[in-house]
Amino acid sequence: MASTKKLQERVVLRTTAWILAEFVILFLLLALIARRAAATSTSLGTLALVCEAWFAFVWALGMNCKWSPVRFDTRPDNLLPDELPALDMFVTTADPLLEPPVITVNTVLSLLALDYPDVGKLACYVSDDGCSPVTCYALREAAKFAALWVPFCKRHGVGVRAPFMYFSSAPPEDGTDAGTVGREFLESWAFMKSEYEKLVTRIENADEGSILRDAEFADFIDAERRNHPTIIKVLWDNTKSRRTGQGFPHLVYVSREKGPKHYHNFKAGAMNVLTRVSDVMTNAPIMLNVDCDMFVNNPQAPQKFYGALKDDPFGNQLEVAFKKLGYGVAGIQGFFYAGTGCFHRRKVVYGMPPPDTVKHERTGSPSYKELQIKFGSSKELIESSRNLISRGDVLSLDISSRVQVAKQVGACNSGTCWGQEIGWVYGSMTEDILTGQRIHATGWRSALMDTNPPAFMGCAPTGGPASLTQYKRWATGLLEILISWNSPILGSIFGRLQLRQCLAYMFIYVWPVRAPFELCYALMGPFCLLTNQSFLPKASDEGFRIPLALFLTYNIYNLMEYKECGLSARTWWNNHRMQRITSASAWILAFLTVLLKTMGLSETVFEVTHKESSTSDGGASPDDADQGLFTFDSSPVFIPVTTLSILNIVAIAVGAWRVVVGTARGAPNGPGIGEFACCVWMVLCFWPFVRGLVSSGRYGIPWSVKVKASLIVSVFVHFCTRN
User: Fold this and answer.
1) pLDDT at res. 175
2) Can you give the pTM of this predicted structure?
């Protein structure tokens, strides 16, 4: 019997004061534009006008995202146990060096230990795009450890079920854990920690050569990372639980087929293989996907981060963006699919429209021929998909007997609708948000789940290279979508993507397009100081009040957003600073990358973000004492900001020298306090790079970057002073 109680409630959040503040900022932007348009008579003024008009446009897009915020309150206690659906859980990893197997193992163990009434309804599939025998070995060892770990978690009511996090602190002083008291628990805790440390040691010391001597890993002997057949291994068959009492989900290792003649479509291709493989093995109606560094934090959502550095020095914890933009977009057609911690209905991923659109279409199950065109030639895949779409059936087969069928559907799949009409969408490095947009354009809505404690916890990159690499990859993928046939504008015109939802997607897709405008505006201050010109009103001019009021109002508004979210002023400053750094580095390179790709001069390359592995007890490694400091390498991503840092310092020095010697007094259009303030503000924003200019080691900017940046500055200064 189904529960009649409400399972969730949509709560509208009132933000009248915030909306008024946003309109004040928009009014100041429009006033600045109007005054600029009335007074502009130079090319410099025209360029400033274009940039300021762009800033106003982006601000209006952001306002649209925040106008109607909602919160979804869930009540899982109202759900009857027999109403819980079967669930297929997907974990993706791509490189055992950048994503150490220990991290993946902890994520998998947290999924295997889920507190679910019927673990027979659960299955965990791990995609290894690195085709690493070490990763497969680590997962096999994890399955053995799970036979101890899962009963321990359930017996003692463990809350956080990723071992590295659970063992990062001492056991409760009073010997209690969720009501378990006494010596027995402490002995059990110490035993489990010892077993986990042994597991970590085996994984970290695993040697590929010795692993390949084991007949179980013979499939890896001739396999190359980018050229090998599909490898699928059932590491744990849940049907054994009925015989042994070891109740935890199926665990299946998948390394999809790769070959030099096939394009593999990055993570989207891996997700589609997992979808097809799981379809013919378990075919659960609900699918959950998580990144390999994201563990289940609450066994009973957009990811939040564990081990977060104080005050978010690299601006990648995205707390304010989640609470302000996320809740706002949730009130339109639903939050964006952010690639991890997301539950999907399988039939939605298969391109089925919502029920309210079917009345105008032919009813009944799709024909075999229709499904063959869409899904491919596998009879088993077609039948299981047809059963799920028409009747919601779940397979109840011995998954070990389906390995050969799974290998067939795990092969490269061309000439079908995978990646276009069904599955994760191809065509962008940010396949997640593109897939979510296609689902919204079909007419579906998404719900934002923000539980307390957070449902999932992920790992945010630390240091300059990892953070900017991640932002560059995101920005590249977003711009690829914007200028392609997958543009949300087309989804709004020809699909069922609501106009405001379209504008919300546009707000994030224009990230890399913001870069050239922000770069131009950032160069105006140094240009004016070097050429003895101005682009802002003088302090004595009444018009100076507009940019001053805009600067103060915007930053106070932004600071108050962080304070309302319970964050410090230092966190606000770090995020503001990182936005300036990211725009002038990762975003501008992403813009140029997509521009070159569009011109046919290069191809985009998927760059895996380096994941930091913790020590076996969950603590930080000894080298992590200065995690909050910016680190550098010789990557081109550091050249633009290093150039701007040097340029602003030079411009301030030249401008100050002119003031001291008095040569600026005779120039009526010479720079004023506004231009000096712009350059000083930029130096403060780029302070990690200023410090990097005089530091050494990993905290210092390499000489190759400094030399290239200095040459660019020399060319710019020569251009400014040649007359």
Assistant:
1) 45
2) 0.89
